[in-house]
Structure formats: structure tokens, C-alpha cells
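Lab notes, practical 5.
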Amino acid sequence: MIDRFFLLTRMLLLCLLLSTAHAQATAFPTGAAQIEQREIFNHAEHALKQQRYHDLRTLMPQLKEYPLYPFLVYGELLARLHQLPTQDVTTFLNQYDESVFAVNLRRAWLAELFKQKQWSLFIQHYPSGSQDPISACQYAQAQWQRDPKQTLADTLKTVWLSAKSLPKECDQPIATWFKKGLITRDLRWQRLDLVMNAAEIKLAQHIAKSMNKSDASFVHLWIELKKNPAQLIQDKTLTALKKADQIIRDQIVDDVWQTWYQKSSTQALQQASLVLAEYPLSTAETAKIHERVGLQLAVQYDPASLQWFEKIPAKHINKSIQEWRVRVMLYQQNWPKVTTFIQAMDPLLRQDPTWQYWQARAHDALGEKTQATTLYQQAATKRHFYGMLASEKLGLTYSLNENEPSITQPILKQTYTHPGIASAVEWLARGEIANARRQWQYTIARLTMPERQAAVQIAQTLQWYDRAILTALQADSFDDIKARFPLAYKQEMLKTAQQHGLDPAWTFALARQESMFINDARSSAGALGLLQLMPKTAHMMARRNHIPLKHDDALFDPHINLQLGGAYLRDMLQQHQGNIMLTTAAYNAGPGAVRRWIPEADHIPADIWIETVPYYETRDYIKNVLSFSVIYDHHLGNKQASLKNRMQTVQAKN
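Output from the prediction step:
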């Protein structure tokens, strides 16, 4: 690992220094000196782990110019925070503020100051605007030690308005706020709304104990309705809730109806009219329920959704409603209504390439060719899924709008030698990827735009693909498509595509969408690696294809992940008769969901099918993968491929 990065960093540094006369002005040693310092650092880090602080302090003077020196200073300081080395901590926080470990040290320092009741020092070092509830509660206690009369109302809201149980460090401050009468009735109900929407029932019961008898009874009723939401339309519930304040009634009905829908969507939809008729709800809450019912019907392509949307006052017509009115009509291929509803959109939304394209498509279907052409031309100027489709309608080449930023040599060198970037690169060279990523992101947030653009180039040179992609966005380099869509793991990717008969550009696009080429990516659902394979699926493919897979972590190996992922994509394509669009949808939402979305009787054009996919995540996923495929066609020099070739008409089940 270090050998590869030694070569890469040497190559990059050589590039940086070619146009400067002062080669000796590098920020940290390179070549043999750097290798020697890495070895010393290994010994120092080992001494730190074994708490041999005398040995550590003996080695540290030799590493003052080494990029990771602040980590050793941080480790040494942590070991003696109990001695309250105030000057040393302050010096570190000032001198090494470019190190992500300054954040760690400040957190540990505050904890130690609080433990030792050093209230003035705690307040002095407390970062303003902190959203950490533990630190905020400790800050409140420290302030009260200096002035018991303070209210600290802003701090109270930061702490109190949480859907989850608060840490034990907040017990005393919460008790003090209660004693001061600052946790008002309104604040209790605001928190209860968060807590009940998160289904934190025990916490709701705990909060109810601090309420008056009447309010507590509404909390207990809410909890019972949460368990059995069908009781919402029973006479005794109607009678009880009509006695509640408007805002309380709105909160309870809103949450219970949502719970009801989740448990029994058909029943909840059938009873929605009764709920609205029986409960005196606010205009905003009534509009919210109309919207929810309308949207649930809309994703089933039910024209009855429009009747629910029509009852919503104009000021409550939001983006989702405007878009789904159009989608319902698209599914029906009711082109006059498509035009009407797009024209009724907010002007800014109407200018989005999505709705420019669909307005053009409607004009086209109605025989209004001039209007269609004008709108297609407007959409076609964008590097966007619908911009690409519009280009194909007009027979034009895609507008990829590629523009790589021009970076001066001084800026590139200044960025490469920046202490934070140098540290991130060195952590990467050592294979300590978590520290590398944390340091990189911490540093990028503090750089100027030109420096961020230079950092993109540095990440590209290091083949650190995911940092190049993310940093390009942070640098507003949206048109730097080489950085944003790299040919990562090119030989492995092409080999996989060839071996399994896959479209190479599509394979790149899937990996880019799934993981941004983070080889050790792990999703919240447990999917792993470049192609985000679920372990169960991976082991199944390994058995079928006689590919060794001893443990799940092997999926972090790009070679293994692509082997198994390529085989899975091949099988998925076969299941969907070679339809790339449907396979893409199934890769995200699962084959079962895609089967449900296939029309029963009539065929449906591919573009309409994509735009009316009920899951917004899958809808955007398909658009991204297909448009990314066009960009990868460009990178691979494939001039014959087109978007429409990957978008086949969806055949009906019958």
C-alpha cells in the first residue's frame, strides 16, 4: 500500500515542482527521508498504544516536520488531560487547528474540565453553536455555577426538542429548567409530537408524568390510538378529541392517521373522508390529509387522486402535488391534462428540464410541433436525463457541457502542501482510510474554492476516486465530468463487462451510483463494496459460479465484488429479457417491486414508465444510472451508444 502511494505522491510532487525553481520548499520530507520518518512514526505510534510515554516523547522531536506529528501530540496530551495542561491544550488547538484531531481534543478537554468542575475554562473553550446535547447540558450547568439566575433558553431548545431519550448528563439541567418553569406546556407538546412520530412510546409516557391531568389524558389516548388506529373513528374517541386544543388535536389525528395507513392502507384511505368530516381540524391539517390521501392514490395511478388534490387550498399546493398531478395524467397519456397541469406549476419548477421535456412531449403528441421543438431545444442544453432525451428527439449530440477547471501551479502546490491535505494523503498512504477520509473532509470544508479545485486534481492523481467525486461537488466543479465520473478500476470493470456480456458504460454507471467507487462502502441495509452486494446474494452467486468467498469482508476487494456483482447483473438481465432499464430498477428496488409496476394490459413507453415509478428513490436512481451511462460512453469513446437503446417499451403482463 505504502509503496504504491509513495510512487503516486512522488509523481504528483514532481508535477508540482516542475515549473518552480525552489524544489527544496516542500512542506514535508520526501523520498528516503520520508520513508525514514514513516518508520520512526511507526515506533512512536506503537509506544503511544503501549502507553510508553517516555519513549514517545523521545521520538517526537524527530517527527516535527512529518504530516502526522499532530496526531502524536494529540495522543500525548490525552494521556495527561487530568493534569489540566491548559497552556498545552490551547497551543495545540491554535497551532494544529487544521488537524481533525483538534476537534477530538476539544471534546475530550471539555469532558475533563466538566469532570473537574473547571467552569470558567469550560465556558471559555465551549464552541458556540454546538448541537451536541451532552456538551450543551454541561455548558448549561457550567453557566449556572457562575450565575444561577440565567435562563439559557436557546440552550434549552437545543437539548429539549429531541425525538429520543436524552443522555444522563442532561438529567440535572432538565430538572433545573423544569424548576425555573422554562419547559412550558407548548414545549412539552412540541417534543411529544417528535417523540410520538418516532414511536418512542416509553419516552412519551415519561413526559406525560410532568403534565397536568387533562394533557396527560390526551397523551395516553394518543398512545392507545397508536396501538389501534382504527379507534380514531369511534364515537368515544371523537368526543374526547373534540375537547382538545386545536394544535393537540391536529398532532394526534395527523400521526394516528399515518400510523393507520402504514398498518392498513386500504382501510385508512376508505375512512379518510369520515375523519375529515368528523374532526374539526385546522385548514393546514386538513390540507395535509388531503395531500397524503391524494399522493397515496397517485402512486397507484388512480385518477381519483385529482379529486383530493382539488380540495387543497392554493397556498398548500406544494411541489409533490404539482408533480404527481402530471404523473397521473402521464400514465393515462392524457396529453391535454399534462399540458394544463404543467402550465399550473410554479414558474421555477416549470423551467426544470424534466417538465420542459414533458411539456414538449405533450405538444408533440398533440401535433403541436413548433411548441414541442422550442421546449426540446431548451431542455437539450442541459446535462440531464431529460436533456439527453430531448437531444435524441431533435437528432442532436448530447450537451455534456464538459469543463475542467484551470488550476495554476502555485495553487496546486499550495494545496498539496497544506497541512490538512498532507495529513490526509499520509493517512491514506498508511492504509488508515477512516482517518484519511475524516481529515480530508475536515480540511476541504476550510479551503477556498480554487484550493478545493486543486484538491480534486490531487485526489484524482492519487486514484482516490470517491474524494475526487465529492470534492468536485464541494468545489462547484459540476462540469468536471472526468473527476465526477472517473473510469475507476478500469481494467477490472471492462473485464467484468466482457466476461458477463454486460454493457461496459452501464456497469461503470451502476458502480458510480451505488458506491461512488468506495471499495469498502457499507450501506445501512448491509450492502457491501463497489456494487453494493448483499452478503446473502453474494454467497449465492459465489456458490453458483464457483468463486471463493470465505467471509463477507472479502466483498470489499474490488476484484471479488466485481466478479460476483457482474454475475448477478448478468442473471438479472436475463430475468428481464435483456431490458437494461428494468434491470436497473430491479437492482435498486428489487424484482418484486418491478413486477408490480408492469402494466396489466397496455404497453407503456419507457420514458413514461420511468417518470411514474412510485418510489422517488428508484425513479431518480434509474435516471441517474442511464444518464451516467451516456457520460461513460463518452469516456470510453463509444459514439454509437444512445440513451434510447437502453430504454425499451415496457410490455404489458397480459
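Observations recorded by the TA: The CA atoms of residues 508 and 632 lie 7 Å apart. The mean pLDDT is 93.
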